[in-house]
Amino acid sequence: MDVHFSVGGDMLLATMQVKPSLKDKIKDAQGKRSISAENEDQSAGRKNNQFIIQDDGMLLNGKRICVLDVEELRTEIMHEAHYAPYAMHLGSTKMYRDLRPYYWWPTMKKDVAEFMARCLTCQQVKAEHQAPAVSDRDPRFTSHFWGSLQRALGTKLHFSTEFHPQTDAQSERTIQTLEDMMRACVIEFRGNSDDHLPLMEFAYNNSFHSSVGMAPYEALYGRKCRSPICWDIEGLRQLEGLN
Question: Coiled coil located at which positions (predicted)?
Fold first, then answer.
């Protein structure tokens, strides 16, 4: 990252340039191996793959960067998409769908699943709630306490069917996902989980949701919010502003 300041009169002009290095690492790895050999290895039985070479020498599959069979590079990409504070240890499906628009290699889905299986934080999170919590819905609680509270608030509460969580399945699944993220946040980053709530909100809203077929940010704004994992794809950006 390069930051330059220019002072003139009563104004201060600040220019910040951010240039990621991951794309350069991938291109260097591609240059060390024969493109034709890589095509033969990766497109065997995959006739739909469209391999092209950009003017800067980068090998693409369609619009996605081809990551060659270099374990360090693939691990670096998956680590950034899973362990970063803006990712918050999301599941393998969400992680795969977040990476797929930008990067390509033949075994990406399998590698993501195996990477997730080795994550100790995710194992600790999931182990704590495999058995669902059971509530007996005591009538003294549901009728007296909640009835009095709702009357005082001027609202009405509808209970779901007993022993039938499918009644409110979508909400229950969302709650489970958020609880997983909160546990992972505490294990990975320590401290008070309240301090990380903005990052958790961002990670959840910027990840793929099967119910709508896209990320909530994409549904609302027409595209996903650009997180650091895709800065290499978008290229060099320059921000200028007066302070």
Answer: none
